[in-house]
Structure formats: structure tokens, C-alpha cells
Amino acid sequence: MLTAPQLRSLKGTRPITWITAYDVVQAQVAEEAAIDVILVGDSLGMTTLGYESTIPVTLDDMLRHAAMVRRGAPHTMMIVDLPYLTYYNKDIALASAGRIMQQTLANGVKLEGGQAILPVVDALIQEKIPVIGHLGLTPQSVHTMGGYKVQAKSSSAIEELVQDAQALSEHGVSAIVLEGIPDRVAAYVTAHIEAPTIGIGAGPDVDGQVLVFHDCLGLSSSLPKFARPFADIRHAMIAGLQSYRDSVINRTFPQDAESYHLPDSEWEKFIQARENS
Ligand SMILES: Nc1nc(=O)c2c([nH]1)NC[C@@H]1CN(c3ccc(C(=O)N[C@@H](CCC(=O)O)C(=O)O)cc3)CN21
Ligand SMILES: CC(C)C(=O)C(=O)O
Ligand SMILES: [Mg+2]
């Protein structure tokens, strides 16, 4: 299993692979595919709980799903998102992250934000909790961003992002997720900080990539522009269920080998006993 210090030292050696996962089966397949890091993202609110944003996701939701993921992937580095309003000051953040570390055996937590959350980042790292940053399109700010819009598109916004990334890196985060920013901005940030950058909608010139599990495997009904479906699992599942349904209706399922059998002698005993009663 990758550790937080190893994650930081992977920068410049080879690209780092991340995927989100929200349950046991997803965790098992991520581990079997040798993905470096599993992120239990608060995107579970959308992919798994059916909400329209990550805002309704609670710490209890994250605890339950991260515990499932850990049981499915005991040997893969697991990072867990701190959800909306669970890290707005040092005390709240320590209590939230403490529960995640102790109850799910996570290897670290991820927080959205830059210079404004440095005191929280310091407090967590002080208590030996590895921290991952998340800058650019930060979905917990959907209401103040005015939607899921590409960020860092003006000179001043780029400067702000670079300073946020430098500050997080200097304060010791193990990596920074860069989401929904222009490719050359992500490349510049990557070249100017020591922490590895993990991109999602941030172009190729970053230290690693992360995708939402459902987007990566073709389970989502719609996709952001940056996501590529590397499989067509939604259609495979529909085809499988249609085939099952057809086989039940035309009585080709279950067959003899899929049924349990009783020896003739025992069956005759049962019939005899009924007739004699
Ligand atoms: N399934 C899924 N995939 C994700 O990548 C994801 C989630 N859910 N939920 C949490 C956040 C929300 N994310 C999103 C959601 C929508 C867009 C989107 O529609 N973007 C527009 C570009 C908008 C612009 O031009 O500024 C697009 O066309 O891709 C982007 C990121 C990324 N995260
Ligand atoms: C998209 C990734 C970076 C995330 O934060 C999530 O899945 O919640
Ligand atoms: Mg998230």
C-alpha cells in the first residue's frame, strides 16, 4: 500500500492513478486493477445517493461508505472527502477527520479550499492526519461559483490559484487535486509546487489523474467534457438483465444444473407416507 510520504515522492517519477469508489464491489475492482489511490469522494451524493449536488452529503454518509470501501480494498491507499460544513474551523475539522481516520481506517482526508483553510490544514497535519488539497472547481462551492464552471480563467484568478497551491504545498499536503481548470494553468501549478497534482478536467500536464468511478466505466447517464468512459458497463448491465428476463419468461432459466435434486428413494418415501395418512 502506498503511503502519504511515498505519494509526495512519486512526483516526477511516473503518473499517479486515482479513482473514486463508494462501495465494496467498486473498491474490490479498483484494488484488483492496481489503482494507486481510492478516493471516497463526496460525489457519492450524486453517483450513489441520487442528490443533485454534494451539498446534502453528511459525515455519517462518508463514514458508512468509506468503511465499505476499506473492507473491499484493505491494501489500497484510501483518501476520504470531508463533506460540506464538516471542517469550517480547527475543532470541527479535527473531530470530523478523527472519526474518519478511526472509524474507516482511511489513510488521509481531502478538503476543498486554499489559503482560507490553512489553519485547518495545519491543525490536521499537526495531529498526524495526512491532508490532500482540492482547488479550482470545488463542488462544495457550487452555489457561490454559480454552477460547475471552469475556474482560473482570468489573470487574477490564476494568480490566486497558484498562491493557494503553493501555500498548501508548503504547509505539507500530500497532494492537491486540481479540478476544472485550463490545461496550461494546471501545468504551471504542477511545475511550481513540490506536492504532486492530481488532475480532473485539468489537462495532461499534472502528476496524476482522478476520475469518478461511474464516469470512468460508463455507468453515468451523462458525462462532463473531461471524462472518458473506458468501458460500457451501464449497457452491459442492461443487456444482462434483459437476457435474464427473457430466460425466465421463455423458461430456459433455471436449468437442471442450476437446480437442487432429491434421490428417487426419498421422494417415494414421502409420496408413500402421504398416501398412507
Ligand atoms: N459523475 C460525476 N462526475 C464528476 O466529475 C463530478 C461529480 N459527479 N460530482 C461532483 C463533481 C461535479 N463535477 C462537475 C459537474 C459538471 C461539470 C460540467 O458540466 N462542466 C461543463 C463545463 C462548464 C463550463 O464550461 O464552465 C462541461 O461541459 O463539462 C463539471 C464538473 C465534477 N464532479
Ligand atoms: C472528483 C473528485 C476529485 C472528488 O472530489 C469527488 O469525487 O468527490
Ligand atoms: Mg469531492
From TrEMBL:
User: EC number(s)?
Assistant: 2.1.2.11
Binding note for cofactor: Binds 1 Mg(2+) ion per subunit.
Q: Which domain of life is it from?
A: Bacteria
Sum up the protein's function in the record's words. Catalyzes the reversible reaction in which hydroxymethyl group from 5,10-methylenetetrahydrofolate is transferred onto alpha-ketoisovalerate to form ketopantoate.
**Residues holding 3-methyl-2-oxobutanoate:** 42-43, 81, 110
- Where Mg(2+) binds, per the record, is at 42, 81, 112
Per its Swiss-Prot or TrEMBL entry, what cofactor is needed?
Answer: Mg(2+)
What is the reaction catalyzed?
A: (6R)-5,10-methylene-5,6,7,8-tetrahydrofolate + 3-methyl-2-oxobutanoate + H2O = 2-dehydropantoate + (6S)-5,6,7,8-tetrahydrofolate
Taxonomic source organism? Sulfobacillus thermotolerans
Name of the top EC class for this enzyme? transferase
InterPro entries named among the record's database cross-references:
Pantoate_hydroxy_MeTrfase, Pyrv/PenolPyrv_kinase-like_dom, Pyrv_kinase-like_dom_sf
Q: Where is the active site?
A: 179
**Cellular localization per UniProt:** Cytoplasm
Q: Is Metal-binding tagged as a keyword?
A: yes
What does the record give as the organism's lineage?
A: Bacteria, Bacillati, Bacillota, Clostridia, Eubacteriales
Residues in a coiled coil are none
> What are the alphabetically sorted keywords of the record?
Cytoplasm, Magnesium, Metal-binding, Pantothenate biosynthesis, Transferase
**Which Pfam families does the entry link to?**
Pantoate_transf
Question: What protein family does this chain belong to?
Answer: Belongs to the PanB family.
What is the protein name stated in its UniProt record? 3-methyl-2-oxobutanoate hydroxymethyltransferase
Pathway participation: Cofactor biosynthesis; (R)-pantothenate biosynthesis; (R)-pantoate from 3-methyl-2-oxobutanoate: step 1/2
Q: How does it assemble?
A: Homodecamer; pentamer of dimers.
Specify whether Transport is a keyword of the entry.
no
